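Here is the promised in-class demo. Please do not try to memorize the tokens; focus on the logic of going from shape to residues.
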């Protein structure tokens, strides 16, 4: 009996250690990588590829190109609202990104944070131009220069009060990155983003990028510079491993893609593309 008890204890210990290692939110980054460690095929990228995908930079210098608008925009009517409210019934969102948001809202609900209100989603260029006239340049961007024009961003409030003070705002700040979202305009980065602190504006970039940005305290502008500098990097997060490669357009229209792994190609909306392989 003693032996059996010891074995059970050992198994429990090993399983716990495994779970701590692989299920924790710790992100491991290795920057000195060269070459994808597997079979690859060559693909030629087009100029259009620079302007579409989840990592496109959209700011006063880089407007949304037509190919940068998500192709799954629809009026938001989820089957299960999971405690999330809408400011009005006209809100439009990318179907895939709203699904990620609802998964995140469910996670927040488990933490007792369940008073989210979606106040804005996708906005067409005309609606953005109108908003810019109303709000002014410190709080809004001209038509075509807002992340809302791409469908990649949404504004999220709390029915409990201002996001800067509400538990919803705190939760987003601490946890959104685990779900592929970033707080796009943080308080300590206004000189880089050119936009005042907006605790309500979240932007989807996807994993592992949101985790890397959180780890380094980078806003998107800084992160894209970093990826461009690194050219290749490896990251692991929640038991998944990723290999990230940056390709400048023009120098390199030929990119390497893995034969037997999932991958995502996204432009940076400046002059390159980033390939993220899930290993
Ligand atoms: Zn916004």
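The designed amino acids, position by position:
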């Amino acid at each position: 009996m003693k032996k059996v008890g010891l074995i059970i204890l050992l198994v429990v210990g090993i399983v716990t250690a495994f779970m701590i290692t692989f299920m924790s939110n710790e992100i491991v980054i290795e920057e000195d990588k060269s070459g994808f460690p597997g079979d690859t095929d060559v693909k030629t990228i087009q100029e259009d590829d620079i302007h579409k995908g989840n990592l496109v930079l959209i700011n006063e210098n880089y407007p949304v190109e037509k190919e940068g608008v998500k192709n799954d925009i629809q009026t938001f009517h989820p089957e299960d609202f999971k405690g999330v409210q809408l400011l009005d019934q006209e809100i439009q969102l990318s179907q895939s990104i709203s699904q990620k948001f609802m998964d995140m809202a469910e996670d927040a609900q488990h933490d007792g944070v369940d008073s989210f209100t979606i106040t804005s989603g996708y906005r067409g260029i005309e609606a953005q131009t109108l908003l810019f006239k109303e709000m002014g340049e410190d709080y809004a961007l001209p038509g075509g220069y807002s992340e809302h024009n791409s469908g990649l961003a949404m504004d999220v409030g709390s029915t409990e009060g201002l996001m800067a003070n509400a538990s919803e705002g705190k939760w987003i700040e601490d946890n959104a990155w685990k779900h592929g979202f970033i707080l796009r305009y943080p308080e300590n980065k206004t000189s880089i983003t050119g936009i005042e602190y907006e605790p309500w504006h979240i932007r989807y970039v996807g994993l592992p990028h949101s985790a890397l940005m959180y780890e380094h305290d980078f806003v998107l502008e800084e992160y894209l510079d970093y990826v461009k500098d690194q050219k290749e990097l490896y990251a692991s997060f929640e038991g998944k491993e990723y290999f990230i490669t940056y390709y400048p357009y023009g120098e390199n229209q030929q990119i390497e893609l893995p034969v037997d792994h999932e991958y995502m190609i996204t432009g940076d909306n400046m002059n390159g593309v980033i390939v993220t392989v899930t290993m």
